[in-house]
Amino acid sequence: MSLLLRHIVDALGGSLEGGTGDTPISRIAPLEVAGPGDLSFLSNPRYQQQLAASRAACVIVAPAMRDAAVARGACIVVDNPYVYFARATQLWRQHTAPAGQGGVHASAVVDASAQVHPSATIGPLCVVERGAHIGAGTVLKSRVTVGEGCRIGERCIVHAGVVIGADGFGFAPEKGQWVKIEQLGAVRIGDDVEIGANTCIDRGALDDTVIEDGVKLDNLIQIGHNVRIGKHSAMAGCVGVAGSATIGAHCTVGGGAIVLGHLTLADNVHISAATVVTRSLTQPGQYTGMFPIDDNARWEKNAATLKQLHSLRDRIKALEQALKAA
């Protein structure tokens, strides 16, 4: 399968320079491995050396890199090469996707009371429980479970193994034992949400867990009960968000980070990988809370010093007070 450069530019825009629209493109490939039939992109000027050495048939570049790209060969000049690359992958998928999208796979189990839009796709071994709602154009890959009363909006992609609407972790202690709190809420997912493989989103205890429009969740993420995630926020793999946390719009959370329960993150908060968020963050910005890696012997010494900081602080305060008194 191939596309002519002309077809790509006609569909996505941009200025084709230094080459011909009749050039066939058989693959989209990284700059360093692209060959004569491939389309690639350069979004970071630091990799200009790779551009000069690349054998790609055409490279997507920003205006600042135009001259260097034309000196090498064909290029498509656009304001944001990375976004153009993303749209090029979508175009490629449209041309290579198998026909017959939509419908319910024969092995899926869909309750008679569930509402599945005719344009939605329910993959092999999926389960859609009583009263669930699946919106137009949404795709459930294999083995997805959508629990009772949960709602998924339009044009969502839910990857293999996702569980939406399992019980939240709610128990009341009594005499050394645990009494289950029935989880009476559901999960509400907006439009254009993508959820990675084996991610779990728990139903709410009383009110619903809410994932707003445009949210992107990676693989193996745990979203606790009654969490709310604002529009167009994104989380990398293995993030954990504990119950009743509220995350604003346009936030990002790096891989392996943890957000403790009942906290609030403002809009445009960005959490570094492996950070543990232990307090609410009311101002936008980048936040990091990880202890730097080191060889084990030095790490143990540093950890032992950290344990003494409290007593050292008290000693310094006592010295300051003594100096003031003198």
Provide an overview of this structure:
With 326 residues, the chain is of the alpha/beta class. The chain folds into three domains: 3-96, MurE/MurF, N-terminal domain (Udp-n-acetylmuramoylalanyl-d-glutamate--2,6- Diaminopimelate Ligase, Chain: A, domain 1), CATH 3.40.1390.10; 103-287, UDP N-Acetylglucosamine Acyltransferase, domain 1, CATH 2.160.10; 296-325. Helices cover 20% and strands 28% of the residues. It has six helices and 36 strands. Strands 8-11-14-17-22-25-28-31-34-36 form a ten-stranded parallel sheet, with no helix packed on it. A nine-stranded parallel sheet has the order 9-12-15-18-23-26-29-32-35, with no helix packed on it. β6, α3 and β7 form a beta-alpha-beta unit. The N and C termini lie far apart (86 Å). The mean pLDDT is 96.
Overview features:
Udp-n-acetylmuramoylalanyl-d-glutamate--2,6- Diaminopimelate Ligase, Chain: A, domain 1, 326 residues, UDP N-Acetylglucosamine Acyltransferase, domain 1, 6 helices, nine-stranded parallel sheet, ten-stranded parallel sheet, alpha/beta, 20% helix, 28% strand
